[in-house]
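Table S2 (continued). Query chain:
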Amino acid sequence: MTGALGDLRVVEMGQLLAGPFCGQLLGDFGAEVVKIEPPGSGDPMREWGREKPHGMSLWWPILARNKKSVTLNLRTPEGQALARRIIAQADVLVENFRPGTLERWGLAPADLHRENPRLIITRVTGYGQDGPYAPRAGFGSIGEAMGGIRYVTGDPDKPPSRAGISLGDELAGTFAALGTLVALHARHRTGRGQIVDSALYEAVLALMESLVPEWEIAGYQRERTGSVLPNIAPSNVYPTLDGPVLIAANRDTIWRRLAALMGRPDLADDERYATHGARGANAEELDDLIGAWTSGQSSASLLELLHENGIPAGLTYRAKDMLSDPHYKAREAIIRMAHPDFGDFPMHNVFPKLSETPGEVRTLGPALGQHNAEVYGDLLGLPPDEIAALKAAGTI
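Corresponding output:
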């Protein structure tokens, strides 16, 4: 294995999204990720996604990239015994079952640590491993709502909205990966593993900036504000002859440049717009002034003008925009891999970029049980006839 985490073996028991996203991030940087799936069905993510050419998920090749798939029935004593043998040779276990599930399967952290004291056990759930809500089922949408981001997302005259992605799940997976790396760093000093407890709602809460003290100290309740942030101006979407352009000129020096570019340098010294606070208080009328200026220009000419004058601006990208953008191409932000059914398969690259030990997409999501022979034969040393017997019994 290559990459910064190439000396690590991760066992992934999670399914759907939050836990597997953590596994994807670790695998992107070189970890050997052994994904355990139920025989016959596998991870439900194999079936998820709106578009399914050939009846196959376009999500799975990305989420399961750089992973090895083995099948194992964790609800049987035989399957649990095999799982313990695999975990005994791992650095990290990632799981996102409800609290208590591992314990019911005879895989309690205390027992696993007796066999493998250096093991990092990363647990991803809706509400965490303790507290009154811990036993509840928790999906990403619920975590987004409880963590606060749903309430402030959308237009003020409509019910709370959501981002068009599984934001809560992927945040929980990202924080789980961060916690795993922190625990691995601590292990270098102590020689001991520990438990990483990543809760969906807390991962969302971590993004909520000063929302809590704004309420308790200032008595201010953040509300939905559509395309703007309160008191941050000018920073909005503005019309042009052929579509909207985003302009973010809320910093004093940038605002002065924009005012001059508009042919209205006087606005920079106008008491209604001269300071950050004044612009925030008069954001709507300031947006009207800027919109009147932008609406008579094409988006391309406007963007060229803004970029030349050091004013942050851009378009709202769709997938086709990303695929044709020269900066995306220069940075290799989207890569292509050969897929046995889809052919040329585009996907986002590994982020962030590291100068000495960059991540890499080595393989796309595997077929169910594709690595049974490798893991059970090479890692555990089981002979072929025993592997065949386990398969026939429905254990693997």
